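Section handout, structural biology tutorial.
Before the tutorial, make sure you can parse a SMILES string by hand: atoms, branches in parentheses, ring closures as digits. In the record below the ligand is zinc ion, and the chain has 311 residues. In the tutorial you will relate the predicted structure tokens back to the input. Do not try to memorize them.
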Amino acid sequence: MSINLTNPIFHNDDAARAHLEGVRWPDGPVCAHCGSKHVTRLAGKSHRKGLIHCNNCEQPFTVTVGTVMERSKIPLPKWVLGFHLMAASKKGVSSHQLHRMLGITYKSAWFLAMRIREAMGLDPETDDGSTMGGPGSKIEADETYVGGKARNAKNGKPIPKKHPVVALVERDGSLKARHVPNVDANNIREVLAKVDRRSHLMSDDSLIYYHVGPTFADHDAVNHSKDEYVRGEAHVNTAESFFAIVKRQVYGTHHAISAKHLQRYVDEAAFKWNNRVKLGIDDATRANKAIKGAEGKRLLYRQPDKPVRAG
Ligand SMILES: [Zn+2]
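Predicted structure of the complex:
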């Protein structure tokens, strides 16, 4: 992790605000309510710092309005450091570590981490199902099960059932992963609906891929039930390495997560995968992409402590 902790954006309110504004509005402030650029900064002692007035809709706003940081009492430099710590960490950062490193309560650290994960996730409003793959592209589809052994964070009871996570990975490309209610042919067909049919599909020999396989330009299935894991270029090892990262984070760093938040952890791991160093993305750029992703997510929270996902 390469974070320069002496950077004022991690200590000073004004520096942190300027940083957040620069990432969110590279071309100057845009009204968080109506999208107008016709805005005036309100200066002076009678105004809260960072307050901006919209001359179009006449409403005030700051850089945190309309983001996962809205209405939070956590100081801005701690948010900025939280984004950088989480974006830079390969293993994931536990709420307990954030609590100690940021000097905020454990509860605040938990909310901060959950909201940053939300910022890292795909926006259901704008994730229009952009397609993956194309001619010559190799797409691995695979599923894993998380839970069963893990304990529920709140009451220490084991999560009663294992929760399936499906991943689609384009070799040398991007990845999408979803916590699904169960794995069956219908679910898999729905997940694969966003994959270009001209792609070459790689899966295991599970029957759920039996009908959907022939709809692709090519389909190779490795025979996991007969201990076959690689046959030429046919394998789902890239998806398996992603699942190993998810499980290491869930069991190793967090020890316990509640099943209803599993998608958050999957989102965090997928975000880091899609913004990895190998693709030329450094820690600071990754943190700024997460900050940028904080926009437009706030509405998904009905209540501060009850994150919900649309759809
Ligand atoms: Zn406005």
